[in-house]
Design goal:
It is a single chain. This protein is α/β, with parallel strands linked by helices and 397 residues long. It has a single domain, classed as P-loop containing nucleotide triphosphate hydrolases (Rossmann fold, 3-Layer(aba) Sandwich), CATH 3.40.50. The protein is 54% helix and 6% strand. The chain has 20 helices and five strands. Strands 2-3-1-4-5 form a five-stranded parallel sheet. The protein is globular.
Length: 397
């Protein structure tokens, strides 16, 4: 590696993270620190040996890893200074889960309009320390600091906004928050790190992810609570059993879609994101790799759901085609199914958001299966038990 290129060594990451965190050194103690260190080591090794990163990619990867390491140090430091954080109770949180590109992001953004719903916003998850306060939640200077990071993304990959709108005040998903546990499929979406993702898929202990996730929610709600948390990411399929142990009264909205559309759209998104930091992106490899991984974790999540009675948890299945046909009607059914009261203010704000964000507002995400080597008949046959269980119809290609 040329001397001028950003370093991805373990020691350089930890040293700079501790400096940025004001000298904080505690990553959470045992047992939480050891899994974090293992994940960090595996990620850095995979980035170096498999990432195919160009110099810009190395810089992006270093900053991504530093951000999560600094944040973990600060979460731990703030909790030590403010013991009240640990006394916060997380009651009946709502989780939106499902395969990628099944409407989870726009559903999360719609639900975020209800004042009764507390969602993690991008700015507070990017810069969580000190814990956000209700009195300054809409004017916190970290909002502008976060917003300043997005123009570069818009300039480098202008098509990204059509796939996944981003903004400091928009809701953020748990897959990003999981970076503070160094165990998340986020990294293999952004970078080519298959060995690291193999560890995430098969070896990592996800109990530590949810132990820290609960601490993150306590931290964020300490000075700015809401009536309920509404959270989202398909990454919860990896550790659903641990989610339910940590939050036994969770409300789970499980989204479903024709897997051909889901896999192709996700391959398109992943290829675009990886192109920011690599000159060697193989869209066919991406589709084949992620299709196999997502099929496995989808089956895992359904198996977890089937295997034991969970008297305090509630599951609701939402079909993507029903959602796009009438978004507010789909939201009403969710509220009824999982026992949420619908206020007039909440309904009005959600309807207004839907009206102001029609499909294609930020452009149209266009993709075709053959661009990614996706064989629709083969995909649907591989996912046939899933499609039959939820009555999924093939979508037009």
């Amino acid at each position: 590696m040329p001397q001028s290129e950003p370093s991805l060594t373990f020691d350089s990451i930890l040293d700079e993270a501790r400096q940025r965190a004001g000298g904080a050194t505690d990553l959470g103690g045992e047992p939480g620190e050891a899994p974090f260190m293992e994940g960090l080591t595996r990620l850095l090794d995979s980035l170096e040996s498999e990432g195919r990163l160009n110099p810009i990619g190395r810089a992006i990867a270093r900053e991504r890893v530093l951000l999560h390491t600094v944040n973990r140090l600060l979460y731990v430091s703030d909790r030590e200074r403010h013991p009240g954080i640990a006394r916060e109770q997380i009651v009946k949180p709502v989780f939106i889960i499902g395969m990628p590109r099944t409407g989870t992001t726009i559903l999360h953004d719609i639900l975020a309009q209800d004042p009764s719903n507390r969602v993690p916003l991008t700015w507070e998850t990017m810069f969580p320390s000190p814990p956000p306060e209700a009195s300054t939640f809409k004017s916190d200077p970290r909002i502008e600091r976060c917003a300043a990071t997005f123009p570069d993304i818009d300039a480098q990959i202008p098509a990204f906004k059509a796939m996944h709108p981003m903004g400091a005040r928009l809701s953020q998903e748990c897959v990003t928050m999981m970076g503070e546990a160094m165990c998340t499929p986020l990294f293999h979406n952004q970078f080519r790190v298959p060995a690291y993702q193999d560890w995430v898929d098969h070896e990592a202990d996800w109990s530590h992810v949810y132990a820290f996730h609960q601490r993150q929610l306590q931290h964020l709600q300490w000075c700015n609570p809401g009536e309920r948390w509404v959270l989202k990411t398909g990454a919860h399929m990896w550790g659903l059993e641990h989610l339910l142990r940590t939050y036994p009264d969770a409300r789970i909205v499980f989204t479903h879609r024709d897997p051909v559309k889901s896999m192709t759209s996700y391959a398109s998104l992943t290829a675009l994101v990886r192109s920011m930091g690599s000159d060697d992106v193989d869209p066919i490899e991406i589709a084949g790799d992620w299709t196999a991984r997502i099929k496995r974790v989808l089956e895992h999540a359904i198996g977890v759901r089937n295997e034991a009675a969970r008297p305090d948890a509630v599951f609701y299945d939402m079909l993507f085609l029903d959602f796009v046909e009438d978004q507010f009607s789909a939201v009403e059914k969710i509220y009824q199914a999982i026992g949420l009261p619908m206020t007039g203010t909440g309904a009005d704000r959600m309807r207004a958001f839907i009206a102001d964000n029609p499909k294609g507002k930020h452009g149209i995400h266009r993709y075709a299966p053959d661009e990614f080597g996706v064989k629709p008949a083969a995909i649907r046959e591989a996912f046939r038990p899933y499609m039959e269980r939820f009555g999924l119809e093939p979508e037009a290609l």
